[in-house]
Amino acid sequence: MTTVCTICARGGSVGVPGKNIRSLCGKPLIVYSIEQALAHARIDSVHVSTDSEEIARIAEQNGADVPFLRPTELATSTAAKVPAIIHLVEYLEQNGATVDTIVDLDPTSPLRSPEDISACLDMIEGGAASVITAYPADKNPYFNMVELAEDGTARLSKPPSEGVFVARQAAPEVYAMNASIYAWRRDALLPSVWDNRPALHVMPRERSIDVDSEIDFKLVELLICENGRVRN
């Protein structure tokens, strides 16, 4: 079975400008994910999809394949990620590659472990069509997440059918997606992750920080630089 790793990195980040190649403890953020993929024994090749010449240069210098610059329509701030992955996989196949399994590592979530990647691949080999990753959420829509009604009042996002939950621990367990790893069987790679019924790999909170703000970046920097949380 051939497993390819895709890493998608736009050049036009809004929340943290230039975050994919911003130096984190001495090397660009995207390099952590490239190194994790290259070091994983069950990944056969590593490919980066980007619209940025600078990201492409850094990715290639660190051992990833960058077969093209991503088309503009797949690189806007509102463009979904999975179509860019499909575009990359179809390009590889059109140029002779065999793809049985796809594992996508988001460069903004570098705290994953090799065991997290293996767990996702185990689920695919065990029969799952696709896998997403998440952590136990610290807020719960049945207990302490609210939304505004049309009259401006607040209400629970998911009101219980009867009564109320008086403690978060009593409410149904929910998970927050961390964008760290996605995996698919090739025949299950469809435009939305919800187009099939994804399995869930639960990761601990400390490996689930997705860099989407300056605070996220500082937290990841703290964990990597002071605690050495990333392992290849």
TrEMBL record:
Keywords: Cell projection, Cilium, Flagellum
Family annotation (Pfam families): CTP_transf_3
Highest taxon in the source lineage: Bacteria
Keyword Cell inner membrane in record: no
InterPro entries xref list: CMP-NeuNAc_synthase, Cytidylyl_trans, Nucleotide-diphossugar_trans
Gene Ontology molecular-function annotations: N-acylneuraminate cytidylyltransferase activity
Cleavable signal peptide: none
Listed CDD domains: CMP-NeuAc_Synthase (cd02513)
PANTHER family in UniProt: HAD SUPERFAMILY MEMBERS CMAS AND KDSC (PTHR21485), N-ACYLNEURAMINATE CYTIDYLYLTRANSFERASE-RELATED (PTHR21485:SF6)
Protein name: Flagellar modification protein B
